[in-house]
Amino acid sequence: MSHRYSVILSNVGSSADRFLTTGYSTPFTIPELFARVKQIPQVTGVELIGNWHVTERNVKEIKQHLEENELKLVSIIPDHFGQMKWKNGSFAAKDPSIRMEAVVHTKEMIDAAIELGGDLISLWPGQDGYDYLFQADYIQERDWFAEGVKEACLYRDDVKISLEYKVKEPRTHSYLSTVATSLLITQEIGTDNVGVTIDFGHALNAYETPAESVALLKKYGNKLFHVHMNDNFRHWDDDMIVGSIHTIETLEFFYWLKRTEYKGWLSIDQYPYREDGLEAVREGVNAMEAFAELVDCIPSGELDGLIRNGNAPEITAYLRKLLLPVR
Fold it and tell me: What does the UniProt entry say about where the protein is found (predicted)?
């Protein structure tokens, strides 16, 4: 099964954290980031982050970069997390003026995406949630969230709105925390153009089996709209190179992407703080290709039969021989 590969633009650049806020390497300009992405031949698309890379004022400039580097806009991630005004939430903020700003910014990014040839907005409302007990109205704030996202969905029904979940960070508790809560919200919103982004590492953080998350989204409405690939040790959103930790989980994930006939993009979302961003992304893409090719090479029906039988020793023996073919 062939896949289309993309990357969040800044992933090939310098990364910073709260301990080294200036970044772990020399920063790159936007033209330099595009040029670095172009050096990875399998990558044919990019994701842009609102205010970081694209605003309503620089769309023509970004369009030129896309055309010059022969890259397609895969999605825009609106900035609902990186400004002081969002510190108490965006779509679920108690302040109605902030909730309105969240909707307005989303619509601006929808307009930008259309002008740039895109048809997907990937929402990560990282500040929507709570930190302390008795701090949040768990019902009212979810109502506000659904109302705001629905307004964005109705703005252009030819643009998909994909909700990316994450169990915590920057809030101690996020409203979009798991695949199940995200599915519930898409059902409440009720439009055909709302779906879910699985970030592989976020699924691990939520103690999900990422392949099962793919299956759930297929079963309950075919709602897997987008995928972010990375890896971590489950305790934190480490955003490490694809397949570097959870090899078997990643293999099963690709099996279920094939089985459910996922047609969307696979996008790198890694933060290689101390590594060269370009080389880390290159290896992440190589890993995705390898997993996809391995799944394709497995004789038709073998894994299906193992799953039907459910014999754990038989399954682990099969995987051992597949991944560790030693005498």
Answer: Cytoplasm
